[in-house]
Specification:
403 residues, alpha/beta, 3 domains, five-stranded parallel beta sheet, 11 helices, globular
Length: 403
């Protein structure tokens, strides 16, 4: 016999954990179930490539709440359990142990799945992607002086792993499939080169235009064979992006297009199902466009919107995209939505390691990034979409709050 719940949350990451807390904070009195394939209670995944790897912290220290919080707030948890199907007509979900949960409302928070390389030798040991706490612990267990680490891909996760590995004495090579610098697709060539130089200065090597052809080794990987040569390794981390985990939504007949299509209140094409986080291709009312953003800040905020929707609140998706990174001695925050084709305007001296970057499009600020310069978050957010000349943006005599 199926168990009955007012709300079933599918996915126990940051978004799923936040939405059940937000429901209770909003006074929601219905029964709540939280289902997640990860055996651990929800935790901050950004800590995996930062605190867990860099500081060797226990992943449990990154938990959103202690496990006793859920029982104390009448949230029934199914950790280490996957959902295999959703039946919108019956308003029920099927678990991997064949139990069924009926719902009044369901919230999809299934996140994204790291891409892998389908090449010979990909099954060898010590080849990892980074998605959960188990991945992070397995990767960091291989760190050590002189260990040879290859990171395939130059995105945020790849560079953060490279920085952590190098900081623990590893010899790190970042393998890029193109001749563009890392992060060029997000930040443009100039800032991509800045991040590459940061890593090179700290001892990381880069291999450009190196398509991965295969991995070699007996039981564990011993080398990465690329179009630019062979790289001897003890450990490989594949960081070539992720795809939204939309299989459940697709099989349930929900509208999908680069994620699950939702409105500004996080409702899918089925009014009884909402979607948040990495999978949500949502209408942003501030920007008047659809956005799918893979970042914890977005997942947390969308979780709060979903809780508001269920409790008949008025919140909507009305903020600018945001993310941050920490690599070696560089910390930065980025807000807005720039592109490699935008004009890059730098306020301050890059060589000092403390500066602000603006991306300008048609004379308007499309995005901003503060590098080792703090306390400007609100001012930079306020500038997105505002028409400001490049001369004024670079004039350090004009306070940021007066631009």
């Amino acid at each position: 016999m199926a168990e009955e719940f007012g709300t079933v949350v599918i996915g126990a990451g940051i978004g799923g954990g936040t939405v059940v807390e937000a429901l209770r904070d909003a006074g929601y009195a219905g029964s709540v179930a939280l289902v997640g394939a990860d055996p651990a209670a929800p935790y901050y995944r950004p800590d995996l490539s930062k605190k867990v790897m860099l500081e060797q912290s226990d992943p449990a220290e990154s938990a959103l709440r202690g496990e006793d919080w859920y029982a104390a707030h009448d949230v029934t948890v199914f950790f280490g359990t996957a959902v295999t199907a959703i039946d919108p007509a019956a308003r029920s979900v099927t678990l991997d142990d064949e139990r069924q949960l009926n719902y009044g409302q369901a919230i999809l928070a299934t996140g994204s799945t790291p891409r892998t390389l389908d090449v010979p030798g990909a099954q060898l040991g010590n080849i990892h992607t980074l998605r959960d706490a188990g991945d992070a612990v397995a990767i960091r267990s291989q760190f050590g002086d002189g260990k040879k680490v290859a990171v395939i891909g130059g995105g945020w996760i790849g560079l953060e792993v490279a920085a952590a590995a190098q900081s623990h004495g590893c010899d790190v090579t970042v393998i890029l499939h193109t001749d563009a610098p890392p992060l060029a697709s997000v930040l443009g060539d100039e800032l991509g080169e800045y991040f590459e130089e940061l890593h090179r200065t700290n001892g990381v090597e880069f291999l450009d235009q190196a398509e991965t052809a295969s991995f070699t080794g007996s039981d564990a990987v011993e080398s990465v064979e690329t179009s630019a040569g062979s790289v001897p390794v003890d450990l490989v981390v594949v960081g070539i992006g992720a795809d939204p985990a939309v299989d459940l939504a697709s099989s349930a007949g929900l509208s999908t297009d680069n994620g699950v299509v939702v409105d500004e209140h996080m409702r899918t094409s089925d009014g009884s199902i909402l979607a948040i986080g990495d999978i949500a291709n949502a209408h942003n009312v501030l920007r008047d466009e659809r956005l799918r953003v893979e970042h914890w800040d977005n997942a947390v905020r969308q979780a709060e919107v979903a809780a508001s929707t269920i409790t008949e609140g008025t919140r909507s998706y009305d903020w600018q995209p945001y993310f941050y990174t920490d690599q070696f001695d560089l910390g930065m925050e980025y807000v807005g939505r720039g592109g490699p084709e935008d004009e890059v305007v730098i306020r301050g001296d890059k060589s000092s390691g403390e500066f602000i970057v603006f991306w300008s499009r048609d004379g308007k600020v499309a995005a901003a990034m503060n590098v080792n310069v703090w306390d400007y978050g609100d001012e930079l957010r306020a500038l997105i979409g505002k028409e400001v000349s490049a001369d004024r943006l670079t004039d350090e005599q004009v306070p940021v709050g007066e631009l």
